[in-house]
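Re: your question from the hallway

Yes, I did run it. Sequences:
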Amino acid sequence: MVSSGVPALDKLLEMEGYPEKSAIMVTGAPGIGKEALSYWFTQSGLLQGDFCLYVTRLATREVLKDAKAFGLDFSQKVPFWIAREGGEVQYEHSDLAKLSYTVKDILRNNSGRRVRVVADVFSPLLLLNPPEHIYRFLSQLIADIKQYDSVFLATLEDGMHVPQVMAAMQALFDGVLELRVYEEGLNYVPILKVRKMLGIQPLPGFFNFAFTKTGMEIGAYVKHT
Amino acid sequence: MSSTLDFVNVIMALVVVAGFGYVTYAALAMRRTLGSGLYRRQALGVGLVAVGFTALYLFNFDSDSFLDPVVFYATAFFLLYWVDSSILASRASDPVYRDTLGWSRLRLVYWVVSVASVPIVFGLLAYYSSIGFQGLPGYVNVVLPILFALPIYAAVVAGAVVMPIAARRSRDLTLRRSLEWLVLFIAIQLVLQGIVVPLVSSDPSDPKAIFVDGVAMLLGAYPLLQSARRLVPIYSFHKEYD
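Structure:
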């Protein structure tokens, strides 16, 4: 298993992390904290000596600043960046072929070790390209990644894409985690749902989550009546 | 007649405080659910705007209070804070991440100029009051009101020029709805408090003026609540839990 970097999530998934050679999607509204899951996943990989590739449309300094707000510090060990600025490879939203080629090249060059690939670019790509193109691109990318000892984590924004597109994208992934805000009386509750996860029984329950200085806390949701 | 209007105004003030208290609570509750600092700031901004406008309204009951400028400045800075965080959040949901009118750098100028104007205004006022406002130079009469209102001008200009472009570039429909509701709230306040109130009375603490202010606040409560609630999509347990 490949640790998610969040002990509470590893425990929840009953198998100490994400399945090996899997593709995981994290969906949620902008700002809810999807990226935090990708930061912890990356940090966990770096600490274990995995090769970590981080694909983002932001500048690396912006990602580092955001990660720092969640208590993560990549100053000692850094991932390989495909980023708008400051990365080893520049991210260009209009060049899917280059992105695909670069990822495959990196996987090939690191075939002797475990690779963690994080992509925080699919919502903008879906907004800039026909969904069919991104569907084909993503399915090919996932197939390529699974040829190696690697785990792929992607984020997708909730509320920016039509439900059919969301469903089609989720179908490509082995695991889908949802972060959502639910209304409970006068209160608002952040909820994590495991929509599906390869190798485990469906988890139909709702789980509270909260970000703390030490990480992410997850607990079974108890309905307040 | 006046005592009846005073009574109505007091009741209205209680309703406004309760309503806007709930709006502030909703904004802060929403903030607690968010992980990203950018969006948490935006939620806080909605809550601060609710607090600021409520304070402005309540201070109209006693327009000679020495706290009036403090409340005015606080509201202006709360508004600027909300506009700033909304523009930054809009950029985050722009697929090509455009920096609208160079806001990432321009915002620093906005904040520095707005904050710097406060000690200048109070410094000028302190100086001329120490000399008894004798022989106040003409240019001070022109500059002082402009400097005094600079933070609110800054917020209004950024809100009217930069924010609509940034919001249009954003592809986050939830964020857009939230901005639209808040703009509606501010439009109601500008029209009723900025245009109608001066027509009703030149004294802001006149019961008739306070009545119009109260109506503006009551009409604005719902749009502001919607703005707070629509910072992220909200799902219902009723459909999924049972």
